[in-house]
Design goal:
Length: 1140
Amino acid sequence: MKNLLILFCFFCFTFSQAQYNQNAPWMETINVESRAKTDNPVQFQEVVNAFNTYWETRDPNVKGSGYKPFKRWENHWGKFTKEDGTLPTSQELWNTYLSTKSNATSKSFMADESNWVPVGPFTHTNTGSWSSGQGRVNVIVKDEVIAGTYYVGAPAGGFWKSTDNGVSWATYTDLLPQIGVSGIAIDYSNPGTIYIATGDDDAGDSVSVGVMKSIDGGLNWNTTGLNAGNTPGSMNDIYVSSTNANIVWVATNNGVYKSIDAGTTWSNTNNTQGQNIRDIKINPQDDTIIYAVSSNRFFKSTDGGDSFTIYNSTSSGLPLSNISRLAIDVTPANPNLVYVLASDNGNGFKGIYRSIDSGDTFSTIATPATVGDIFESTQSWYDMAFGVSATNENEIYTGVLNVWKGIVGTNGQATFTNINSWSAPFSSTYTHADIHFIRFYGGELLVGSDGGFYKSDNAGVSFTDLTGGMQIGQFYRIAVSKQSSDKMVGGLQDNGGHAYNNNTWQNYYGADGMDTAVDPANSNIYYGFIQNGSSLYISNTSGGGISGTVGSPEDGNWITPLKMNSDSELFAGYNSVYKLENGAWVQVSQNFGSSVDVLEIDDINPDNMYVGINNALRKSTDRGVVFSLVENFSNNITSIEVNTTNNNIVYVTTSGINGQVYKSIDGGLNFTNISSGLPSVTKNSIKHQSLHSKNPLFLGTSLGVYRYDDDTLAWELFNIGLPNVDVTDIEVNIFDNKITAATYGRGVWQSIIPTELAPTDVKLLGLSGISTAIECDANITPQVEISNNGISTISSVDITYSVDGTDTVYSWIGSLASEATTTVTLPQIALAKGTHTFAASVNTLNDAYTINNNSEEKIILANASAVVDVVNTFETVNEELLVSDDGATTQYWERGVPTGTVLNDASNPTNQVYATNLGGEYIDNTKSYLISECYDLTTLSSPIIQFDMAFQLELDWDIAYMEYSTNQGVNWDVLGTASDSNWYNSSTLPGNNCLNCPGAQWTGQSVNLSNYAYDLTAFTNESTMMFRFVFHSDQSVTEEGVIIDNLVVTQNPLSVDEFNTDGFSVYPNPSHGLFNIKTKTPEAFSFDVYDVTGKLVLQQKNVKTNNNQYKIDITSYASGVYFLNIYNEKSKVTKKLMLN
């Protein structure tokens, strides 16, 4: 690494610039390369304007349209603009890096006390995403000498190496100034020698600083002669000669560069200079033959790359017009074959061409007319990959949106099959959308996409995701729980919302994850936007699944700001400020005429709100109703922070590499610049650390994190262990004294922050003794853990605790030394059946800070014991069950009379049921539970559970099933299987069309109330057994849902086999007392009649019918609901009787 720094200090820098992919269609009007060499370089806003003009007549919402890749680039590089409107060159960015490192080693005002550690995601679990992934992969190379070794390059996440076939990964490029990689080459005569082509060739997420070289297997890196001072703007494919290890070729946007001295010097005087070479391949048998393609032309060299011939004649068989991108591949199965894939000027599929004479002539083997649209998108300028099998010369693969497999027949024409779908994450063939890389090694097919690295060993029949272990997530924003930094949720580029809880990352929704929030009162509730604020995804289980969705009131910015105040009210910034109320966005403020960029809410007084719109700062003192302009800055606002101890102090950061940090001490009326000492880095996010007299500030920048306080009045690096990567967002948690940083390429990192003790301060650490389970006959004994966060000994603490809002004060007397902790046990509390909230706060004399005095609310589900053999008809309030909804925006499982168009079997006004929606269709993205009371099965020898149910559910996509718990709701398991008689009707496993299926469920429809029963004999030792009906809907299409009636756990007299419900009927029903049983066969049966208390009122054994009919008379009994059990030696069924 020392050599790297020394070499770079002597470089003569030139023009490589952070411009956008010049093959994008809107770039046609901007001549980037020629203008870069003049005194009129392209300005950032010119590119944005060209993009906006292009999209005026196109639909940006079409999947694979190319809209999103540009918006990512615009969001990232818009923070880097210089005062003249241009973007910095590689030289300028590198100079900033060098000055930063130089300042870090000089005398500092304060020691860097940071100790950053990676948090991930290294792996994740998909709990709700329709396009699950972890991070973009640009290139994958297998080491064909060292067994089990693979190398991966990420656009902003560096170079990764695995030596155990992709089971684990390590990176060694974190201290390089640029950690984007688009090409990797191995010197097979010395496998420890590796070259990387730096930067992000496809989307420009990072600039190129040339070719870098390692001679120790990637552990350390040095520059080559193609470096930050003379590198072209981008580069991709790179190869080392198999016959002469000193020869290296690399494809760049300024032609093919060749080195004959192992990278020391480079040249490109070979007829490709000035050409944007997107792909090169070496003839598998003769490395003096090299093929290359620019955006629209094919090149061939027969002298090892010293010169190239450009194919400009139609006689070649290749198209010469209506081309925007070409890709090539070759195969050792036939070294004379060359394939070329082409996209048209609209960036859609144009054709595939094959040469059987080493690239001299080509024939067309596929066009849209013969194989259809195998691209499925119009963004080939961003992602277009092509590969040929290494063992079958006629087997080819394309990748744009998905991977397609083609077979070239004996007639010279290809046929194609779509082998996967980007929206089927549980399919065995799944790869994330947007394919950037395809390559074969023997029988291994390697694919790199926006979601990671996928490998197939069976020609695409199935893929294995090998991304696990690579921390390459590109985060836009992060939100951390107030109670613990171990709970957080963030938004990733093209990989949706990733939630962290219990040391596990869960991908709970897809698309581009954006701004996020965690409820300060309940850290299990996460919120996350996707691009433009077009949908809000809610999880009530810390990312365990999607609990609800909310559509947008209008289009917001690419990153639409989302903010929750200290009262758990959620706000979003569109053209107006909106507040989430009852599952919908309600406009609060005036229309600003432009989208809100930044939204900030005062933690101390949530009536104070700030918005940043371009360079204008506006403030509201009435919780967002009216905003007034308070300041115009010279640059656009990137972040706003209200001091969490003194809300008169406000901080603002602005955009551009020369952006500033400002401070106000009068609530935003006047600002002073406090940027002195900061290098030319972007100022992305600023946060204040409370509970500290020096008011520390932390600043996330394009080169790490800086710290500032009122003592030093200077910015110092806070960066030990943190990679050289863009820090897009930071959060400070004073309860566990941690700072969390979200990065654009290296995931999430955390560090401990320096703290100080106040003279007197008590801190509430947490609550215990309150089970998150469902308490049967609940009596809780809460415990409060407190600590002395001050210098002085504490002798008394007042603990105020509440159940459902009713406060009780408990006084603790004792002696608590400085930094000591103690646990206080509160009096026992008896809870009635239902849902309760418990909260607590602490206070002591002369308490310095109140911000650390309150607990998170705890939700308690208190249950009651049920009586076996008693049928729950849900007719009265006393028969209500517990309902738990995973954050649903509308209450589900409601009791009453069903009035749906289809589900209305119990429409008699005295007959009530539980339904997902009594009067209509359920909503999307809902997971709800209807929980039974606690049953003691030890009193029954052969217990069964029975109920009546009707349902109308979107087949396979929306489902219902029953779960059981034997430990008061701590764990739940699915009850039964689809093979059990008279039970589930579906055994579909999670896959393409049943994302939420557990493998045993009800789905589709059965719209008449039917009886269901399950044998519980295996649970006769359980004394507190509970059951719950689970209803789970997906993201679209609704039906009327589920209705449940007549729930009972009872003794099974004979069998729980299903009785043929078509074999008999009961009429009239309702009746004044005379009911007729009509059977289809003369077979004898028995019946019992019970009232709603479970009392037997009538019984008849071995009934023989007259003309298949039998009359029941219960006219002497009171009006109400009765239950008729009909059974024979083989089966049993229950029917409800209504006696008027």
